[in-house]
Each structure stands twice: as structure tokens, then as C-alpha cells.
Amino acid sequence: MQIDVDRSSREPIYRQLAAGLQQRIRSGALPPQTRLPTVRQLAEQLGVTRLTVHSAYAELQSGGWVEATVGRGTFVAAQIEGLIAPPEAQLGRELTPAGMVADILRMSQLPGMISMAKADPAHEFFPLRNWQRAMEQAMESGGPLMMGYTTAQGDLRLRSTLAEVIRERGVSAGPDEIIVTAGVTNGMALITDLLTRPGDTVLVEQPTYLGMLNILSSRGVRAVGLPVDGEGLVIEALEAALRRERPAYLYTIPTFQNPSGVSMRPERRAALLDLAERHGLTVVEDDIYGRLSYEGAAPPALKAADRSGRVIYMSSFSKSLMPGLRIGYIAAAPELIRKLVYLRQAQDLCSPPLTQRALALFIEQGWWHSHMKRMLPRYRERRDALVGAMERFFPAEVRWTRPQGGFSCWVTLPPGTAVTDLYMIAISRGVAFTPGAVFSATPNPEPHLRFCFSAEPPERLADAVASLGGLLRERGGGRSLAAPALSDYVPVV
User: Fold this and answer.
1) Closest Cα partner for 133 from 376, 353, 364?
2) Do residues 261 and 289 touch, judged by C-beta distance below 8 A?
């Protein structure tokens, strides 16, 4: 079996190998129940280590592409119809927040796809060795207790460590004022379930994180969008909304906002807190990107200046470490934390104790801070590569933000650009982004895109932008951009 690997690429060889095998399964070259070479056979054939092949097989198995049986070997999965279905049967069917989340996850399965759709940390830089050490230490220190249940509020050692972590963002909270969640998404869902009922109103920035819009929609809660400009949430719009609405809360990402990448100016933060106190408004602050600053120190968290207790603070390690940990946290008044704990108990009881203790040890050993110190220059390089490529390849009418932190860049296209057509054609050419409409609570007449630069190396970002620039120039030239069938999809490699 011959699979090409590029040893000069920054993409790990095991991921290249997994993508190559996945592509052969898709094409039918490796039908269901085909036996794959043994780890040793394929390693010798390709001139790679056995660990490389083992890691590729493990990634394919986790995605449902192959099945492994001890003593028999590794086989192409018997039931893969859903995975090998033509992309047009799955992508772009529903350009809503819920549909786009599904698209982003499906596109990660397409071999060779350059994805600027997902705001993921770079997988190739995950600190797996130190994480394994932290897991081993957690097992040694906790023993069998690490494989049982823990409290719904979360491991006390982790909550004590988190109290130190958020102090670096200017937030003062003790372990009793913190609850561990299954990522920020779980935190947003818990807060929404506690503070709202169907038919209630929640104020959000426009644009805002599509996951929050998905949560609100699924609970029958009305989202009212407030405009964001280059200095963050427009306070005059918030004040006007508070005169006409009775919102359950305001959801904001004041630092390196997703999807725009902008940060709220200090004057606006002060004005927001003043409005919250005067109107009795609860503010939910999502600070998931607060650690990812590329131009000096990030602004302190909004919660740091909260003197009236109106701000509920939440964050997670999905962007600053690894999303698969599914560990986030909320800091708020003890009474509200107690209510969230009861709600968490009713939903899924608790987060895994082993992962929580390992994270506490990982942070205590200094490995998390060291990882962040290594990653920030790499993410800055990728941001600069994206912005530089847009300057070279995009038409002059296209505008974009230059984020000082976070993972997202907000792109504004010329009026009349058919973003849905562009989305489908780009996928057919092996490039993925997120259409801007899914980030809006109400329709926005301007055509936008969100580009995320964190998960792709600089050279692939440049390739993606060059391809999109060509598409935009074709449209600017007046030629039709009829979308090809996505079964003709050819990845840009």
C-alpha cells in the first residue's frame, strides 16, 4: 500500500497517513471489512515508526473508519455509509447555528480540507507527554477514587487551582464560588436553564458565538442582537434595548470576541457595568480567549471591575490547552453556584474526577503556563500569515479585522456577494470557512465570513486565501460561479 507523506510538512506524519487511508476508504479503494496491513508491515513499507502507524490507526478508529480486534487485526469498518456519503448530502443543508456546528464537525472528516471554519487550538502542538505524566500522577495520588464519582461542583483541588488561575485575570473568587463544567458550552447551557424560561429574552452581541445562539434557540429563548464595532459592544444600543426589553441576561465576549476578534474598550466596560447596576442586569462574561493575546497583556476580565456582583464569569481550557478535556468553569456568587450545582446534578452528575485532578496537577507543575508561552508566538505567526495573505490575494473591496488575540478574523465582503454559493464552491475546492449569517441573532444585510487561523500552518492558510481570492475576483469580474457537485471535491493539499 503506497501512501505519500511529506516529511517537510508541519502536519504530523500520523495525521497525513490517517488522511491518506481515509481518502482511499472514501474512494472505494479500500472497501468495508478490508483487512489493513499490520502496524509493523505498514511501518516498514513507508519507512516510519510503528508508533506513527499505531497513532494513525487509532485516529481512524476514533472516527469510526476502522475496527480493530485483538488477534485478528485492523479492518475497514463494516458500516461506513454515513462517513463516505457524498459531501453534498451532508454539508450546507441548513445554514443555521445548529446546522453550521454539524458542518464544522463533518468537515474535519474530509481528508486534505484546509479548514478555517473551526476555532480549534493546533492539534500538532498538544502537550501530550506532560499531560500523560499529569494523568499518571493523578492516578498515583488519588488511586481508585479517581475512577469513581465526585461532587457536581467539581474536584476541590481543581477549584482551588482555578481560583489562582482566574486571579491572573483580575477575578477574585474562592473555591466555593467556582463550579467545574463540561466546557464553556455546558456552562452557557446551565446558566440559560437556570435564568430563563421559554419565551424569555437574552441580549447578545451581533455578531456573537454561534453556540450560544444554538443554545438559546433550542430552549425557545429569544435572542436580541446588539451591534459590535471596532471598540466592542455599542453601549448606546445596549441602553436603548434595556429601555424596551426585560432581558434575563446579557451575554458578552468582551476580550477577543468570537467571531469579530475585537476587544471592548475600558470606557465601554465601565459604562456596561454601570448600566448593569442601574438596571439590575445580569451579565454573563465569556472569557474563553482572554489568555490568547498577541500584542502585550490582554485587558483584565470584565468581572475584575464588577463591584455589584452582576457579572457571571466563565471560561475553559478548550482554546488554551485541549478541547477534548471538556473542562470549563463558572465563577459567581455562592448562592448562584449552589443552584448551578443542583442543576448539574440533575443533568449529568459530574465531570470525570481523573481528568479534573490531572488538570489541577498539570497547572500546578507549571506545564499549562509553559504551553501557553510556547503557543502564543505560533498563533501570532498564523494570524500574521492569514492577514498577509488577504492583503496579497483579496480584492480591494474586501475588509477584515486584525485581531490582537483569540482565533477569529471577521471578513466583510462587497455588497451582493452570495455567501452561501461561495461557501459551497470553496468546500468543493478544499477550503472551509464559516458564513457570517450564522453568528447573527437577526438578519444582517452585509455579507460576512469568519476565518479561524489557529488550526492550520501558515503555508496552508496562504493556499486557502489564494483560492478564495480567486473565487472573489471571478465574481467581481461578473462571471457566474455555478457551484459544482461536491462529489467532485478535490482537496487542496
Assistant:
1) 364
2) no
In whole angstroms, give the CA distance from residue 185 to residue 257: 16
Residue 92 has pLDDT above 80, yes or no: no
Closest to 487 (Cα-Cα) out of 442, 433, 428, 440: 428
Of 459, 452, 441, 381, nearest to 411 by C-alpha is 452
Say what the pLDDT of residue 490 is: 30
Task: Report pLDDT digits (tens) over 104-124.
Answer: 666 665 667 888 998 999 999
- pLDDT above 70: percentage of residues in the chain: 90
Do 423 and 469 reside in the same domain of the chain?
yes
Distance (Å, whole) CA 5 – CA 245? 58
DSSP, residue by residue, 330-343: EE--HHHHHHHHHH
SS3 content of the chain, % helix, strand, coil (to 5): 45, 15, 40
* Residue-wise pLDDT tens digits, 30-75: 888 899 999 999 999 898 999 999 989 988 887 788 998 877 899 9
Domain boundary among 365, 397, 426: 365
What range defines the domain where residue 459 resides? 87-125+370-488
